[in-house]
Structure prediction request, 103 residues.
Amino acid sequence: MNHNIYVYIFIMFAVTYLIRVLPLTLIRKEIQSKTIRSFLYYVPYVTLAVMTFPAILDATASTWSALAALAVGILLAWLGKSLFTVAVISCAVVFVLELFLVR
Prediction:
């Protein structure tokens, strides 16, 4: 079974290129639908959340410490704390909990 790497690279190039070029060529005027505009507005935030959430749960030795830090981080963000504050306190929560949970 002889696989040609260049065929795979070309297919990846074509798919990526079409995903980026087709919307530019097919949609020429401004999108008027409030539903579609709202959907497109939230796509980057949802994508970031979908990529970040599994990493949060897998980055620690214990899933419980990750969930606790996630809950503390959400609470602090909800209260309007800065990103640096949320990150430092969440890391501290993981550190303290893993001192007791992981042996």
